Amino acid sequence: MLKLAVRQAKLLVAVLPLGACVAFLSELSPPVLTGGLTAPRSAVAQAAPKLQTATKSVSLPLRLEIQLSQRRVTLYQGNTTLKSYPIAVGRPGWETPKGTYKVQQRIQNPAWIHPMTGEKVKGGDPENPLGNYWLGFWTDGRNWIGFHGTPTPKSVGTAASHGCIRMYNQDISELFAKIPLGTEVTVRD
């Protein structure tokens, strides 16, 4: 059995991109065997600790893609599909605007104001056409378009809204829990 001792070891830490950190021993002199003999280089590799790295987990951003003709919104992480949901889109005269946007509002129990009459329905009211969750992604400075639930689930899959994306209440609840402000929303035919 060999007894090894390492002389003149220095611990170095290097910070790499993305917060990765590498610790290793440098300036290793060959280990000294009992009796003053020097061990071969292969013994140095066995005596030195393994290179250890700590890497920061980097996740790709979430994004949403709405396909109006298919009446679906798909949640992606990078290019990986996570889930697809059925939706209702804007009816004729109130079409959902096409383009690329960012989620600008996240509201639980949003109030709804009728775009024509100005009538207001409080958040949390079972008759509120927005349901319990709102993810706003488009505005002209006065009106907003976003994802929301509905008290009329049979409208999902149709062109029925004032431009918004209606979802089943359980689907918007799930999506709301995952989507932060700034998430990209792309609306296509």
From TrEMBL:
UniProt key word Glycosyltransferase: yes
One of the GO BP terms on file: cell wall organization
GO molecular function: glycosyltransferase activity; peptidoglycan L,D-transpeptidase activity
InterPro entries, A to Z: LD-transpeptidase, LD_TPept_cat_dom, Transpep_catalytic_dom
Keywords from the UniProt entry: Cell shape, Cell wall biogenesis/degradation, Glycosyltransferase, Hydrolase, Peptidoglycan synthesis, Transferase
Coiled-coil regions listed: none
CDD domains referenced in this protein's UniProt entry, alphabetically: YkuD_like
UniProt GO cellular component terms: extracellular region
Record-annotated L,D-TPase catalytic domain positions: 62-188
Pathway: Cell wall biogenesis; peptidoglycan biosynthesis
Active site: H148 (proton donor/acceptor), C164 (nucleophile)
Pfam families linked to this entry: YkuD
Family the entry assigns: Belongs to the YkuD family.
Protein name, UniProt field: L,D-transpeptidase family protein
Species annotation: Myxacorys almedinensis A
Upper taxonomic lineage: Bacteria, Bacillati, Cyanobacteriota, Cyanophyceae, Leptolyngbyales
